[in-house]
Structure formats: C-alpha cells, structure tokens
Design a protein that fits this description.
Strands 3-2-7 form a 3-stranded antiparallel β-sheet, with helices on one face. The N and C termini lie far apart (185 Å). Helix content is 28%, strand content 16%. The protein is an alpha+beta fold. A hairpin with a 5-residue loop joins β5 (195-196) and β6. Among the domains are: 3-46; 125-213, TolA/TonB C-terminal domain. The radius of gyration is 82 Å and the shape is rod-shaped.
C-alpha cells in the first residue's frame, strides 16, 4: 500500500470517528433535553456507516547490505566422496613354457703350452785358452810317427754344466789313430767355463775347434 492510500484511509477513519462522536453527543443531548423518538429515528436514518476495508500491508523487503561490509565468497563446494567399487579379480592365466634344452657352453680353449726356455746368454769358454796348446811333441803317437801320419782333426765337443768335456766327435783328414788320441787328450785336459741360461744357471753346450798334427823336421 502506498503512502497516499494510507493517508486517505487514515482520513476516512478519522471522519468516521468524528461522526460517531457527534452522533453520541446528539443522542446524549436528545436524551437530556427529551427529544422525541422521531428525532432519534430520523438521525439514525441519516447516519451512514462507511465500512472501510483494511488492506493487508505489503511484504517487507529485506534491507540492503551495508556498503562497507567485505564480500565473502561462498564456501567451496566439496566434491562428493568417491565410491570405491571392488573390481572383479582377473581370471588366472596358465602360462605353458616350452622345455628349452640347455645350451652347451662354448668349448674352452686349452691353455697355451709354456714358452720355450730363453736361449742361453753365454757360450762355453775354454779356461786353458786354445785347445791346440794342450798338445806337445811327446803326445805324438809312435805308430803315427813311424807311418809318417799327419793332418787335422776337427772336434765337436759337448761341455757339461760342470765345465768338463762329456762328449767328443772327431772328423777331418787325419788318421783314425790321430783322431782317437785327439779326443782322449782333450777330454782329459780341457776345462771350460760352462754356458749359462737367462737366469745365470750353468747349462750344457757345445764347442768346436780344429787340432793340427804335424811331424817336426
């Protein structure tokens, strides 16, 4: 309801109240002065009662929010809880493996044979100098002198680790008598410094020289 309507309704209500008051005063006055019943009837007929229907008040609007209040954002919407559903168990699968024969390992190469010993570092050396110096005129065999036998004997000697002659092989143009005497004298008289290996150990070795037989004039 607007303000003008309220004001009009209030004015009508005030007029009704005034008229009722005047009517009561007139009735009282008539009773007091003894007016007749006709006057009361005539007054009642002339009285008009105004039925004022009161309209319901309009709904009240909420007051506007104050300007200085900070605007608070609405609380965040929480997502609905997750519902876990038990998944069905996967079917059991049977894996069939083939029997693979074992692979034989590659053949292992045999170990290498040991390396041959290093060659000797030194040769046998005669301690008496030239083997020709072992012979004198007295060593000439009498039979060879009688037969006038002369010539050269080439000997190939084997020198043992002890430095002594362990083998003698004669060759050359001399007679067998001279060859035999040559090996016998060298084996008995010759002394050598034996050959040595890389570690300095004495080893067997060979030695060669030529002996000359000649009858002095």
């Amino acid at each position: 309801m607007s303000y003008a309507q309220r004001k009009q309704l209030s004015g009508n209500r005030t007029m009704a109240i005034i008229m009722v008051a005047m009517l009561q005063i007139a009735l009282g006055y008539a009773i007091v002065t003894g007016l007749a019943y006709n006057v009361i009837k005539k007054t009642a007929e002339n009285l008009k009662v105004i039925d004022v229907e009161e309209q319901p008040p309009p709904p009240e609007q909420p007051p506007p929010p104050p300007k200085d209040m900070p605007q608070v954002p609405p609380p965040p919407m929480a997502p609905p809880p997750l519902v876990r559903m038990n998944a069905p168990e996967p079917p059991i699968q049977t894996v069939v493996t083939q029997n693979i024969p074992p692979i034989a390992p590659p053949p292992i190469a045999p170990p290498r044979p040991p390396a041959p010993p290093p060659p000797r570092q030194s040769q046998a050396r005669s301690l008496t100098g030239s083997l020709q110096g072992l012979f004198s005129a007295d060593d000439y065999p009498p039979s060879a002198l009688d037969n006038n036998e002369q010539g050269t004997v080439a000997v190939s000697l084997t020198i043992g680790p002890s430095g002594r002659v362990t083998g003698c092989s004669p060759s050359g143009s001399a007679s067998s008598t001279l060859k035999s005497v040559t090996c016998r004298i060298i084996t008995a008289r010759a002394r050598f410094s034996p050959a040595q290996d890389a570690n300095g150990n004495p080893i067997a070795s060979s030695y060669s020289q030529t002996i000359r037989w000649q009858i002095a004039e």
